[in-house]
What does this fold into?
Amino acid sequence: MADYDVVIIGAGIAGASLAAEVAPHARVLVAEAEERPGYHSTGRSAAFWAESYGGPKVQPLTTASGPWLHSPPGGYGDRSFLAPRGALTLARAGEEPLLDAFEAEFAGTGVRMERWGRDRIAALLPGLAEDIVAAVYEPDCQDIDVGGLHQAFLSVARRGGAQIALKAPLEHAEYRGGQWHLVLGGQAVTATRLANAAGAWADPVATRCGVRPLGVQPYRRTVVQLRTRPAPVAHLPLTLGVRGDYYFKPEAGKLWLSPHDETPEDPGDTAPDEMDMAIAIDRFTQVVDWTIEAVEHRWAGQRSFAPDRLPVIGYAADNPAFFWFAGQGGFGIQTAPAAARLAATVLLGLTPDAMLSGVAGQMYNPARFG
Ligand SMILES: Cc1cc2nc3c(=O)[nH]c(=O)nc-3n(C[C@H](O)[C@H](O)[C@H](O)COP(=O)(O)OP(=O)(O)OC[C@H]3O[C@@H](n4cnc5c(N)ncnc54)[C@H](O)[C@@H]3O)c2cc1C
It folds into this structure.
């Protein structure tokens, strides 16, 4: 029976990044149910880094991750995982107070925002609807190379000595005698600590381990890839509605469009719903008068949120050997480096380093749920 210090359940961006951070300090096994890591939420993201996305209490993790993603440390390659994109949050006539509130939420955080008038927006978006009058522009928003980042975390974890077991679902978990006795894909292992990085399955994994679930709920999010006339300019920013009812961005001459849907569902291999795709296209046609020549591709993934929509990072109140690393919602990629550093620091009892200086990690402690 193999014996580990830490078994991490899930090899998405959360489990992979945590493994990379913990491997130099401990014997780590990452157990992934699927035959390839990144099959679920991590492989389905819209791949942007936007400091305002997720709100002001997620922003410290996103901001702290920015320099790391831009200039990764040794071992992660010598290439940035980011590429400039910019983000433009649009308001219709009458919605300007929502833009004011949006700017006010981030006042004093260091997130750069500029107010744009209609002419500047129309220069990027020909055929702009008459009633779109203003926008907030975030120049620092970036695209993320999600596949490259995820693979880099996995390979750093492996090089650090972590083992990554695929087709290894957590089938049985029992905590006795100060140790976890686990069955993972038919293999029995023991571990001193178990880290729950199971994304949409975070609550079921807790239940299987005899730990009280926290109400981490998966919500479906849909994206369609469109061929449009005109095609989007390559430097079109990520463009969002100030009411949070759509976003779109260019991708190799095509357009990725989401209706910003949030349909609660059970954890699973989710798929797009026709109605959500129709809603996305309808909302897009209310922004610009472009012709949609084809829906070329569509997908959906699950974004999993704790009840307060903040990540959950810390030991369970009801089991000191069960560690939560869940609730990454719609920001799990852009926060991954700092969130994993914080998680490893708490998991191993290390001293927080400079990367976490702007992050009040206690805010994410599961103890907040009682
Ligand atoms: C459409 C969409 C767009 C998004 N856009 C962005 C974006 O632009 N920027 C951003 O930062 N974030 C974005 N996100 C959010 C981001 O994708 C997620 O926050 C992130 O991928 C969550 O990572 P994870 O590792 O927690 O989950 P996952 O990637 O789902 O990984 C969890 C893993 O745990 C495994 N698992 C579950 N149960 C078990 C078990 N019992 N035993 C073993 N393994 C198990 C699963 O198989 C899975 O591989 C988006 C999400 C979606 C759906």
Q: What stands out?
A: The chain has a mean pLDDT of 97.
